[in-house]
Structures are given as C-alpha cells and as structure tokens.
C-alpha cells in the first residue's frame, strides 16, 4: 500500500503544572494521495495537537508519523499549514507574506514574485498584493494564508479550522473555492473542523475524534458525487450519522 | 490688503491656539510688570524677546554642541539598548544573567553619574554624551526586550513551517520586525529623557559648552534671567521639534503596517 501520510500509534502527552495531560492516545491513520480528509471532534480533543505533530512543530511522545515514506522530524515547507488563528505577518504586505518562504528557500526574486502572484490570483486576491493584513477581512486573511502555504508547493496541506472565525456566508464561499483549488492543484488535504456541515461538504473521508484523550473512533467515507449540494438527501443522512457519533462524544464532556 | 492678511489669521484653522497663546503672553507681561515687578524673578516677554536678540550669536553654536552630546548619547543608547534588549528578549539565559544588573543600574538617575562622567571622561563631549546614553539606553532596552519577548507563538510557527529553521532567520524575519514598534516607542521616550540629560549634564559641570552650560554658568550665575528664559524656550522648542520629526518619520514611513498605534 502506498500511503501519502501514515500515523502509527501516535501518543502525545504534555507536561503541565497540573501534571501530565494526555492529549492524543494511540492515533492510527492513513491518508491516500490527493485525498481530502476531514478530522472532526469536540473542541479540546487534540485536533490542533495532531496537526502540529504532522507539521513537525511538536514531536510525538511515542509513535511514528511518516510522510512520503520519510519520518517527520521537524517542520518543513513540504507540509503547508494554515493556522486556526490569523497568522499572516502583519508587517509584511500580502505579496511579501507569500514570497517569504520562497525567499528563504533561495529562489530568485523574479521567480518569487511570479509564483506569489500566481497563487494570489488563485485565491482570488489579485489587486490586493500591496495591502497590509490589517486592511483585509478575516476571510481574505485566510485566503492569503492558503496562498502562502500553497506557494511552497507542499506535499500535503494541513488546515486547522481555517474558516472557524469567518461569517457563515463567507465560509460557504471559501469552502467552495478551496474545493476548486484542491481540484486544480491535486494536493492532499488534511482539514480540521468542528463543523459537521463543513466536513460533509468538503471531505472524501471524515475521521471522528473522541474527547480527550483524543482517539480516532470512526472513519467514514463520504461517497457523494461532486459538485455536492449542501441540502441533498444523502448529505443529510451522513450528517445525521456523524452528529450521532459526535453527540455521544459530547455526552461524555457533560 | 495687508490688514486683511493679518486678520485672516484669526479666522484660520489654528485661531483658538493663536489667540490663546497671545492671551498667555499678555498675562505673562502684566504679571511681570505690575505684580512681580522684579526682573530677577520674572522677566517680561519684551525683555525676553530682546534677550534673544542679544544672544543671537551664541545660540547656533550652543545648539550644535548640545545636539552633538545628545546624538552621541542617543546613538550609543540605541545600539546598546537594541542589542542587549533583543538578546535578553530572545535568550532566557541572557535575560536571567543580566537582568539584576540592569534593574539596579536603571534605578539610578543618570544625573547621579555626572561626577564619574567627569572623572572618567574629563570635560570632553563624551562626558555629557555618557549621561545622555544612560538616560536613553534603558527605555530603548526595556521596550525592545518586550518586543522580542512578546512575539506571538503563531508567527514563530508560521515562519518555521515556511522554512525558517534557524534561529537567525526567526530573529530576522519575525522577532526584529515585530519589535520595531516597541523599539520606536522606547526611542521616543529616550529622546525626551536624553534631552533632559543633556541640559542637566551641561549645567552640572560635565561640559564647558552647550545650552545647559550657558544657561547655568553664563546666565544664571550672572543673574541674566531674561537670557536664561530665552534659552529655556529654545530648549523646550527643540524637544518639541525632535519629537514631532520622530513621530512623523516613524509613524508615517516605517510603521505603515501599524497605523496609529505607536503614540505613547
Ligand atoms: N503546549 C501544551 N501544553 C499543555 N497542554 C496542551 C498544550 N497544547 C495543547 N494542550 C492540551 O491538549 C488538549 C488538546 O488541545 P488542542 O489540540 O488545542 O484541541 P483542539 O484543537 O481539538 O481544540 C487540550 O486539553 C489542551 O489544553
Ligand atoms: Mg484547535
């Protein structure tokens, strides 16, 4: 089997003042090339922790994370990440945010700008190249963050509730655009969300996580033909199943 | 037509400010002439205006000398403050190692160093410059420290994911740009304190030239209070102008990405 990404028995515990916190317990997960995988779970269940481990920003307490056959040992531009919080550098303009990674990679300046412009156009922000982040709306900031990640041509795109803090209308538009980008760039996408609607609209497959310590309790294929309709009968059925599965997780919190 | 031009001042944008200033000068004059009536205690506006004229020849040189002392101290303060503040903000060990020393030295008013400045550096320009340095370095250091220390973790993570794996890159692309507004705010405070230090150092014997020196040794000791007031006004105006220039330059040019947040 050739997997894009493989997580084997990944465990993560944090040492805090109140003692050990077990954030992730025995995560096993395989992601296929070009797959759009959503990870869904109640807040605090370890979704961010899991993405950070894959990004290499933290190391697992035990277990292995293997991307393209190599074990993840630290952060690298072959894993693009869009963060839950706004993460654009406020002191750099839109275009300079996108070129930074290319610059560090040592690409010459003309090429940096050519690539950056291409991705800025891809996320629909042509004309905003020289704006500073404070001049952009929340949705626009996340689009730039997506462009910044994609410009590095990563092997996998990690997205941590990227549309969590934009309004519902913008959110729908962004989801649609993300699918368009995914189709065109053929990236593998790992998308964290706590919204069932979002997962059902976007994903090829949904992994449901339990409350802390986070485990993957179920993987569900979403066999709905694309382009999808948010209100279709099949979507409703899957949504209901996911909600029930998640509901039993929320029950445990109370 | 001439008359009209004069009157138009009273209709312009700054009419309230101009009228207020005129009223203050009139009150000052009345106080000096009819209440205090002693030139040594309160010279009136007219004698002060005349004093400007009497000392017009030495003003440029005194300003130049004081600005020299000031810029030497401020430049040294900026270099040392930014370097040490940045290092302390970035490396926890360095912070812990020199923080106690910094806290103690910072608590001593710079003016208390004047005797040592004279002992060590004699009556050179370095002597007053050293006092300015002591006044300027700490606000810059402390603010730069806060700028480095306070970098939001998400920016560090974002930079790491983009390939900044070396500390050098993180400092260059994240910590330094993040700390610039802080350092700018610190520098603005340093300009104010540094200017006070110039005048004090020159007055208290760390120099035999400059605005402070002349104010004390040539005017006060000879009780030429009208000239003294003229110099006080010059000192105040220079501080005001420096602050305005700095704000214009920094807020308008360097910190376009952070509109209107540097005012301290
Ligand atoms: N650096 C850390 N130190 C200690 N505990 C942490 C740390 N990061 C996360 N946690 C804990 O791990 C759990 C999972 O957090 P997180 O992954 O952010 O959840 P989610 O993203 O699903 O909301 C939380 O209980 C959180 O308090
Ligand atoms: Mg999270």
Describe the structure concisely for a colleague.
Chain A has 254 residues and is an alpha/beta fold.
Q: Would you mind describing this structure in some detail?
A:
The complex is a heterodimer of chains A (about 250) and B (about 260). Chain A is of the alpha/beta class and about 250 residues long. Helix content of chain A is about 35%, strand content about 25%. Chain A contains 7 helices and 10 strands. Chain A has helices spanning about 45-55, 95-105, 110-120, 140-150, 170-185, 195-200, 235-254; strands at about 5-15, 20-30, 35-40, 60-65, 70, 80, 155-160, 190-195, 205-210, 215-220. In chain A, the strands form 2 sheets. In chain A, strands 6-7-8-3-9-10 form a 6-stranded mixed β-sheet, sandwiched between helices. A 4-stranded antiparallel β-sheet of chain A has the order 2-1-4-5, covered by helices on one side. In chain A, strand 4 and strand 5 (about 70) form a beta hairpin. The longest helix of chain A has 21 residues, at about 235-255. Chain A is globular, with a radius of gyration of 18 Å. The mean pLDDT of chain A is about 90. With about 260 residues, chain B is an all-alpha fold. Chain B has 2 domains: about 1-35; about 50-255, MetI-like fold. Helices cover about 80% and strands about 0% of the residues of chain B. Chain B has helices at about 1-10, 15-35, 45-55, 60-90, 90-105, 115-120, 125-150, 155-160, 165-205, 210-220, 225-255. In chain B, helix 4 runs parallel beside helix 7, helix 7 (about 125-150) runs antiparallel to helix 9 and helix 10 runs antiparallel to helix 11 (about 225-255). The relative contact order of chain B is 0.12. The chains are: A alpha/beta (about 250), B mainly alpha (about 260). The interface of A and B includes residues 81, 101, 104 and 152 of A.
